[in-house]
Amino acid sequence: MTNTIDQALDYARAHPTRDGKSWAGWCESLIWRAGGFTRSFASAQLAGDASGWLNPDWTTAPRGALHYWSGVGGDGHVAFDLGGGTLLMASSRVSSLGTALGLIHFLDYKLPEYRGWSLRHGTETLARSATAGAGTTPLEDDMTPVQEKMLAEVHWMLSERVRPQLNALHDGTGGAVHKKLDVVVWALTDPKAGLRKMLGDLITKLIPSWNGHPVMPTAPKPGPPAS
């Protein structure tokens, strides 16, 4: 399981250097290690490419989001959002937590080629913190393998199909809708969120069979008119 954003920050504080050397040039490595992700990328550019649609409005990014930039010699750049626009990153521009490691506000970073933010690092997201679902009790994740497969399809649909269509509307509500959608997508990937199990059960009821593609129930044909 991946780390929470608090655990990612704790990792950074405990590792002021990268294997005894500077963190400069290793922004993607920091994200991979601190986030506890299973997949690493050769560059932040490739990580951003694999993370689906990127929201270009940095002001709507929640705590735990990942910000992606292009440029930097083609390798791009990536950083964690700690809330309020404060970023955790590996960069020669910061040093508050270590050698080329620290915090900086988004507006102070000023790398021009901003791509956008996402909750995803590739196909993974950070685990939610214990306070993320305040007022709720985490539920055990006892989804069946079939439900897991269905859920992966739903997650892909929300990230790759629904979100881009919302972005294309340009009706002034996209930002708020995207933020709510991101919360849902994040919850779908959290084994303790409860939403996974609930949605899995719902899909099972709606879809009687599964062979790699959803099969929606066919509505019953109307019978002959009453005489």
TrEMBL record:
Superkingdom as given in the UniProt entry: Bacteria
Name of the protein described by the UniProt record: Uncharacterized protein
